[in-house]
């Protein structure tokens, strides 16, 4: 039997952790509204579906045991986050008060950025590889893994909505300073990219 009373709060804590994807949700919520941020966040959820499946197949073990693969994915991911942050920071300085929309384009572009950001961190799949097995029922491996994955995705969507709503609220209270918000978002993204460079492969 699944220990959902333990899994759900622990999982939601992971979902609510402030990281590059939740920073994107906050930014999209401020710039385009909650519904836009939720729709863009579907790109993140699609990547997580793949990661959960990969973890269930044991690919997370390969990533955690191969120093070369982990390092390559880590460096590429860090470079992408830093580039994305620099792009956002640069556009913030050239943003006019009459043009407070993000420079990333429409919904398709925002969803693609969410997906790429989610896939740029090798530790994301390791979360599934290390966290999920603690709650998986071996006698019903596929069913329990699928249940845990579905719960994770629902809670991730809830966390996405919380950050998007927070961003939208911030935009309403300080609409004229939204370019500062985008600049801070860019700095934050570069910060997460820098942290990723120092991430160590789990032993």
Quaternary structure of the protein:
single chain
N- to C-terminal distance = 29 Å
Please indicate the percent range of residues in DSSP E strands (runs of 2 or more).
Answer: under 5%
Query: Helix content range of the residues, please?
Result: over 70%
Which key phrases capture this entry?
203 residues, mainly alpha
Protein model, in words:
- The protein has one domain (20-197).
- Residues 96-104 have low confidence and may be disordered.
- Helix 1 runs parallel beside helix 9 (141-173), helix 2 (20-32) packs across helix 9 and helix 3 (34-40) packs antiparallel against helix 9.
- Helices cover 78% and strands 0% of the residues.
- The protein has 203 residues and is mainly α.
What order do the helices and strands come in, and which of them pair?
Elements: H1 4-16, H2 20-32, H3 34-40, H4 42-56, H5 59-65, H6 67-93, H7 107-119, H8 122-131, H9 141-173, H10 178-197
Helix pairs in contact: 1-9, 2-3, 2-7, 2-9, 2-10, 3-7, 3-9, 4-7, 4-8, 4-9, 5-8, 6-10
Nutshell version of this structure?
The protein has helices at 4-16, 20-32, 34-40, 42-56, 59-65, 67-93, 107-119, 122-131, 141-173, 178-197. The protein is an all-alpha fold.
